[in-house]
Design goal:
Bound molecules: adenosine-5'-diphosphate, 2-acetamido-2-deoxy-1-O-phosphono-alpha-D-glucopyranose, magnesium ion
Number of domains: 2
CATH architecture of the largest domain: Alpha-Beta Complex
Radius of gyration: 20 Å
CATH class of the largest domain: Alpha Beta
CATH superfamily of the largest domain: Aminoglycoside phosphotransferase (APH), C-terminal lobe
Number of strands: 11
Order of helices and strands: HEEEHEEEEHHHHEEEEHHHHHH
Shape: globular
Oligomer: single chain
Strand content: 5-15%
Distance between the termini: 51 Å
Length: 365
């Protein structure tokens, strides 16, 4: 705690620190809520960046600053009348005017302003929440749609490039010493049957059918903040993966997270399903703001994007399980296996409802 106070005190804030608590349920970084004795700015978020995942954290901060300056200016100058309630977290600088602080052990710390009177959920609550999740992602995409991708660094090579994850998995499998349980066998089989299809979005990108745009990269539902009073989406947090990508990665990630009412941490993976009414609500919310910048070809690949990102996350969890849990934080040795099973069940549920999902997309576009 003393150590955390020393770290938090490196940042310029308005008041004295009175409390620091671990916060949120992220799988990658360590997040803390810092409380100040100031009634106007009561909290800020302090985070230790996982530098095994983000090997160039300075570039991550550069992207976040590029993004928040760009969108912050738009909102401050009222250049955007479409998103009156939207908020953008600000990077807090250190007393030496740096956007991060390195402690004696070399850990990389940064601080972010707190989105007040809001919360996020790990599990989708209802159709209204689903619509707000979609609206939140749509607003985010809309606000950055004219920011040039050339201004953003690639801070996580291979992120959401499914064929690269598959190649890595195949290499890990060759040397894996894990005895295949019936659950692991189910994963192996599911992966075997889909190896040819994983290139679908990357092929479309190479052929110029889909374009790189600025994306969030990690729009699962607990990264979309909901106003406690109005129930409306008001901000997106967890901005580490803002970088050039396909909007399909974001839409896919948002739906795989928001259409699974049991949540991605459920133990009862056998009964996981992709709920169509939640998908309709999320897409409705999303398209209410983002319709104008999606092209006909973007729509063509939406279904495959939804299917692919659920599958990809299953593949990433399963590979991490085989590798000994080195990427995602885990609570026990089988945690990543259970998480993989959840995403693979979701993938099968998406596949079995292909026609209905295509019809929803057709209806809403
Ligand atoms: P991780 O990268 O580990 O997922 P996040 O940045 O998502 O960490 O933070 C974890 C949780 O903390 C989020 O799900 C959100 O509920 C909360 N949180 C993060 N940043 C803010 C913020 N600026 N304001 C309010 N809450 C936040
Ligand atoms: C990680 O940091 P967090 O928990 O928001 C991961 C995402 C996964 C997600 C699954 C940088 O996100 O890609 O979809 O876990 N982030 C990174 O819960 O790999
Ligand atoms: Mg997060």
């Amino acid at each position: 705690m003393n150590n955390l106070i020393t770290i938090a005190n490196q940042f310029k804030t308005q008041g004295t620190i009175i409390d620091i608590q671990e916060y949120g349920h992220g799988n990658i970084n360590n997040t803390f809520l810092v409380t100040l004795d100031n009634s106007e700015e009561k909290h800020f978020i302090l985070q230790r960046i996982n530098t095994r995942v983000f090997s160039q954290p300075e570039l991550v901060m550069q992207n976040i600053c590029t993004f928040s300056d760009y969108v912050g200016k738009k909102l401050d100058n009222n250049l955007d009348s479409q998103s009156p309630r939207w908020k953008v977290p600000r990077v807090l600088y250190t007393k030496n005017n740096q956007n991060h602080w390195l402690d004696r052990e070399g850990s990389f710390w940064r601080a972010i302003s707190f989105i007040d009177n809001a919360r996020s959920f790990d599990i989708i609550q209802n159709l209204n929440h689903a619509r707000e999740i979609g609206y939140g992602l749509g607003t985010f995409h809309y606000l950055i749609s004219d920011l040039s991708v050339a201004k953003l660094a690639d801070t996580l090579k291979g992120f959401h490039i499914t064929p690269s994850y598959l190649r890595h998995y195949q290499k890990v499998l060759e040397t894996s010493k894990i005895k295949p349980s019936p659950e692991a066998k189910y994963c192996l089989k599911l992966l075997e049957n889909r190896a040819d299809w994983v290139n679908i979005l990357e092929n479309a990108k190479s052929k110029g059918r889909l374009q790189l745009r600025p994306i969030h990269g990690d729009p699962k539902i607990n990264n979309i903040m909901i106003d406690r009073t109005t129930g409306k989406a008001i901000a997106m947090v967890d901005l580490d993966t803002i970088k050039p990508g396909l909007v399909h990665y974001d839409i896919g990630d948002c739906l795989r997270s928001g259409c699974n009412p049991l949540g991605e941490e459920t133990e009862t993976w056998e009964t996981v399903s992709f709920e169509l009414e939640l998908a309709r609500a999320i897409l409705q919310g999303y398209l209410s703001v983002a319709k104008d910048f999606l092209t006909e070809q973007d729509y063509e690949y939406l279904y495959e994007g939804i299917r692919l990102i659920a599958f990809e996350l299953g593949l990433r969890f399963f590979t991490d399980y085989l590798e000994g849990n080195i990427y995602f934080k885990t609570k026990h040795s089988e945690h990543n296996l259970t998480r993989a099973l959840v995403q693979f069940k979701l993938t099968e549920s998406i596949e079995s409802q292909k026609t209905a999902i295509l019809n929803i997309i057709q209806d809403l576009k």
